[in-house]
Amino acid sequence: MCHDCVAGGPSGASRRSFARFLAAGAGLTVLAACTPEASAGVPPSSSSAAPAVTSQVPSPVAAPSVESTTAAVKPPPQAPVPPSATLPGQFSLTDPASPWLVVNKHRPLSPADYVPADLVQPNVRLAVSGEAALLNSTTAAAAEAMFAAAAQDGVSITLASGYRSYGTQVATYNGYVATRGQADADTASARPGYSEHQSGWSFDIGDGGGACGFQPCFADQPAAVWAKANGHRFGFVVRYPWMFHPVTGYYYEPWHLRYIGVDAATDMAARGISTVEEYFGVDAAPGYP
Asked: Mapping DSSP to helix (H, G, I), strand (E, B) and coil, where does residue 63 land?
């Protein structure tokens, strides 16, 4: 509003003359002075601007839509990088002679009847004999170092089950099926050709006192507690940790150790990663396909 347009004008009768003066046309000038000017380039009304707006609307053919432009430049989705990719040395996840071999219910050994070429008996305290006392040479050397370090800390660890051939796994698995049924057997024993024991990279430990062998209470025994806390220093991880059976396919086995190398095992421990599936970036394997 323009409140100052008539300020200081004449009073009384002269006001009527002033009003007639406004009506005669001079008021048009005053009103124009009180009306804000439109910004440069802005049409005074929407109706007069309509033709200009219509002429500026782009033709559907003149420019591609936003959606089509975005689709053309959108990069393809990238596969997540597994934590193990940060290590300087990389190894095969499928070669049975590789320390990074991943064997689970979706990833059988190839060939199914694989036999390690370098099986040896480690110089450790044994609770078994025959093929079950064997490991591949790399795992055997690491086990010797780990058992010796545990002994220095006053903890006695025994080798309770090492290498298991394809034929032995057939008998072991079929025994579980016969006594417990296949569904239950698949949660406790690997099918032939799907066992880490056959690779030579894993073994089961026992406590020197002989308590709780292959039972849940083994988790509280000195051997299990020490191995869980220190195994990574020698390249070992607890392969089937507590509450991760939806990933590994097996319930907690605090006695089952797996060699993956000092760098990888230490990196897993530092990152707080519990399963080799997550660490090496492979799918969970809760059951057989």
From this structure: coil
Q: Token digits for 176?
A: 């579980």
Whole-angstrom distance, CA of residue 44 vs CA of residue 47 = 9
Query: CA 254 to CA 124: how far, in whole Å?
Result: 19
Cα(first)–Cα(last) distance of the chain, in Å?
A: 80
Contact of 204 with 178, CB cutoff 8 Å: no
- Helices 222-230, 137-152: crossing angle, 10 deg rounding: 120
Inter-residue contact 101 to 197 (CB < 8 Å): no
**Which residue spans within 104-216 are E strands per DSSP?**
119-120, 135-136, 157-161, 202-207
Instruction: Report the candidate in 232, 228, 241, 278 with the shortest Cα–Cα distance to residue 93.
Output: 278
Per-residue pLDDT of the chain (289 residues; tens, 9 = 90+): 443 333 344 444 444 443 343 334 433 333 333 333 433 333 333 333 333 434 444 444 444 444 444 445 666 667 789 999 999 999 999 999 999 999 999 999 999 999 999 999 999 999 999 999 999 999 999 999 999 999 999 999 999 999 999 999 999 999 999 999 999 999 889 999 999 999 999 999 999 999 999 999 999 999 999 999 999 999 999 999 999 999 999 999 999 999 999 999 999 999 999 999 999 999 999 999 9
HSE of 131 in the Cβ direction (CA atoms, 13 Å)? Answer: 13
Residues in the chain: 289
Max Cα-Cα span within the chain: 132
Scan for tokens 């086995």, then name that residue.
253
Nearest-angstrom CA–CA distance, 85 and 271: 13
Rg (CA), the chain: 40
What backbone phi and psi angles, to 5 degrees, belong to 171?
A: -65, -40
